[in-house]
Amino acid sequence: MKKKWKGVIWMLALVIVMIFQNPIEARAGHCGGSVGDCGCGTERCNNQMVCYYNSPWDYCVGHNFGNTWTYISTSATCTSQGSQHWRGYCSICQRWYDLYMSDGPLGHSYGSWQNYSTTQHKASCVRCGVTTYGYHSMGNWYDGGDGWHYRKCNQCSYTEKKDCTAPSVSSFRATPNSWSSGNGTVTITARDKGSGLTTIEIYRTNVNSGASERVASYNHGGTTASVTDTYTEHEEGVYYYTAYLSDSVGNSSSSTSATIYLDHSNPSISGTENTNTAWTNVAPQINVSATDYLSGTSYRGSGVSSVVIKDSAGVVVGRGTTSASYTLESKYEGTYTWTIVATDNVGHTSSKTVTTRYDITKPGIDGTETSIVHNGTLISGYLPDNIIDQNIDDKPYRSVNNPNYTSGLKSVILYKVFGTEKTVIYGSGTKATFDASDTNSSFHMYYELPDDEKEVAYYLIVVSDHAGNVAKKKLTSQQSLLTWFHTSIDGSTYR
Asked: Could you tell me the pTM of the whole model?
């Protein structure tokens, strides 16, 4: 009840205010009070008296409305006016009085902005529910530290995000970084925490030629997890690798690896073709060298680390870094096969063999001749029976070096010598030739001196082997010796 009366009092007060704002013309009079209170007597009051009032309760100076006041109101809305109507009956004036007051529209009272779409937000009036819309007022982009960049509307909760960050590479390794005989390993670990990693492509660049080609491609479907991909390099060469990475919104990055060195080729040996492999009595020389190139190219590989020359027993007789040489010693008289081994810096080896045929021992000539002293002169090769009977051979035992093979006889010739002239004695037992090496070949020379060769000074056997060694033997017959003796008695020059 208290509340109700307070409302009535408030409204009446408002009425009085409005009355005073538009005062009704009045004259002073008693108007319901005691005589003299207002300057007029009761007798002078009448129903037509126009009252001046200050308030409805002031019977001295105003109307007397008693309890006749009524209040009618129409509330204002957000968009339309409201009205207030007070009505009272003055018992003095004996008439009804109406007081009107208008209230303007209340206007909308909007609540906070709420996100509506990617471009707009909205707010609703708390009284009528009408909705208004506005465009987002976006702040500055900032890095969220999770692979995304964010910005927020300054008026509502709307937030935008975008991936401005390319995929990152945490590790990109290519090994080995020095020459190796094995394969190479390329490993990349990468991540995109924003829109997610889609592809990694690996390109290989040949350092020597400059050529580049894609060797591997990996699809990761937009994952935000860390991934690791591995590529195995099987081809020899000197390479470095470039990885190209893309995420789901097209951001890209790249990374370059270290250089790897792969050598799968053996060294190449040259020089053996210059070694004399035919029978010779001149110490053969072996001069070899080696190079190390990547297969089918002129690009150097790991390089040659050593070149060695080994005999048939595996004994190293010559050594060098990229070349080696050896001149045969006499102990290697015979036929020997030499092995040349070249090794590169990753352990690959190549080998070649070369066979030498070395014979420094002359063929042997053995016969029945003797030695005599004639007139104080030693005469070797005396044939007391006037028969040349000789065994000729080229066998290993004749050498102090105990060779395994000899070059063999090449030719056997018997000459008769007259003064300064030599004449070949032809016959199956006096002359023979061997077109090819006949190892350990032998020949039996037999020749009976005829009587008509009394003028022969001496006989000369010349034997050669296929290595160029020549053995000679001078034989003197009994006939020749007698001829010399008689010539000496006659005073002629002794031959």
From this structure: 0.67
